[in-house]
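@here heads up, posting the sequence + SMILES for the DQA run so it's all in one place. Ping me if the SMILES looks off, I pulled it from an old spreadsheet.
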Amino acid sequence: MKQLKIGAVAATADRPLIAAPITAYTWQQAVQQADLLKKSAVDVVEWRVDYLETLDNLMVTHIQKVCQATSKPVIFTWRTQAEGGAKAYSRRTYERVYLNAITAGVAALDIEINLLADQKNLLKTIPNDVQIIGSKHYFTKTPANLVSLLDNMVTLPIDIIKLATMPQQLSDVDVLLTSTKKVAKNANKPLITMAMGVMGMPSRIIGRRYGSQLTFVTVINSSAPGQLMVTDLLQKWGTRYDI
Ligand SMILES: O=C1C[C@@](O)(C(=O)O)C[C@@H](O)[C@@H]1O
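bot reply: prediction finished. Complex structure tokens:
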């Protein structure tokens, strides 16, 4: 299994990385949230820029200020409306803000695998030390062929595989976990997987045992259904944590 590293932090065999989102409407508010996350128990910060009121004026300096305020590795994510995010995809704006994020020094970029073909220019300019997290969300179901979908993701020009599914029954959570285990065992890329919603919560707690190397929690606001509060996750793990 390939170990997950984002910026200066790495998952271990016992513990996945913990990431929490910034869900701000303005970049100034994002700086405030980044500062709160700096003081929290999370390892990594995901800036969900699709929550911003507008992306038209997002500058390198704004992104730098957010990175400085958290001092933790930042994953830069525009989750498009097509995959449950807040902003519709625009090729030009996407390329511009992602290039700004690279210049500002983010640790990783989340790029939906459906956009890889449309963002060839961007892909060419991403330096080796910026990780590409290729993501795919199934918001209504758990596809039956998850192992082959994950195997296919391993072949894409991405560094890290991220897959989220919505379980309709408890056995769907098993399918997500066991498929993760099967693919993670031999894959030369780290995997991050989760089942969403209340039913999927166990996958966010025990996913590491199946090969998922990062778990998303809520510190300020949730960015997906079923995220636990960070304090609840640590309590379930039996980790002592004083706020
Ligand atoms: O891809 C993911 C995972 C996620 O959807 C979750 O289910 O926790 C939350 C998103 O913010 C993140 O980009």
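MO: The chain has one domain: 14-237.
MO: One more: The chain has eight helices and eleven strands.
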